[in-house]
Amino acid sequence: EVHLVESGGGSVQPGGSLRLSCSASGFTLGDYDMSWVRQAPGKGPDWVATISSGPGTTYYVDSVKGRFTISRDNVENLLYLQMNDLAPEDTATYYCNTGNHWGQGTQVTVSS
What are the tens digits of pLDDT across the range 67-87? Predict the structure, then answer.
């Protein structure tokens, strides 16, 4: 059975950093495209970043390019999202996703 469990969220000031983790079980993470999706309060979900299966090509929404980095550890079956220079508009619940599988989300709040 596929399980995705996110962690690493929290509250930070603008300009701060966080690293989100997603622990995957029930499948080999490197064999699938993996994504981070976020949902701000009162809004729909927004795609943030994807790392492809195999070579691990990465893709980002324009608003996070240069600030966020998606990566994975194929040995530990972990997905990461390094988030730097955080801004209030990054406040959201962040979800790990592959296909129609989702984690429970981790909350990121950026506020002064």
Answer: 999 999 999 999 999 999 999
Q: Which of these, 18, 6, 2, 9, lies nearest to 78 by C-alpha position?
A: 6
Report whether 51 contacts 33 (CB < 8 A).
Answer: yes
* Other Cβ atoms within 10 Å of 62 Cβ, number: 6
Helix then strand then coil, in percent of the chain rounded to 5, is 10, 50, 40
Q: Which of 70, 91, 77 is nearest to 19 (CA)?
A: 70
Residue 38's CB: how many other CB atoms inside 10 A?
A: 23
CA atoms in the 13 A half-sphere facing the CB of 50: 12
Q: Could you read off the pLDDT of 31-65 as tens digits, one per residue?
A: 999 999 999 999 999 999 999 998 999 999 999 99
